[in-house]
Amino acid sequence: MKTKFKIPQFQRLQISQIAEGEDEYKILVSGKEVSIKGVSEKCIENLFSRETFTGKDIINLLPDYDWEIDIMPMLSKLVNERVIFVEPGV
Known about the structure:
alpha+beta; three-stranded antiparallel beta sheet; Outer Surface Protein A, domain 3
């Protein structure tokens, strides 16, 4: 939870809702499309408005979500798709 994540400021992100009334969003970045389910638009906007954040920041944004079941898989997907990066040395 102390891992620090970075959102590159040079990346252009486009976030849009996949279907009206659904908590599923697609993120377009560097020609790639990544989808995220089950989080609110407010959370997505808050997350991507930061340059860096920690796992603890995400837990505070998503207090009703489980770290192992919900949050870690989402963060892993975003890291694997190179939307966010792990800060070195943390």
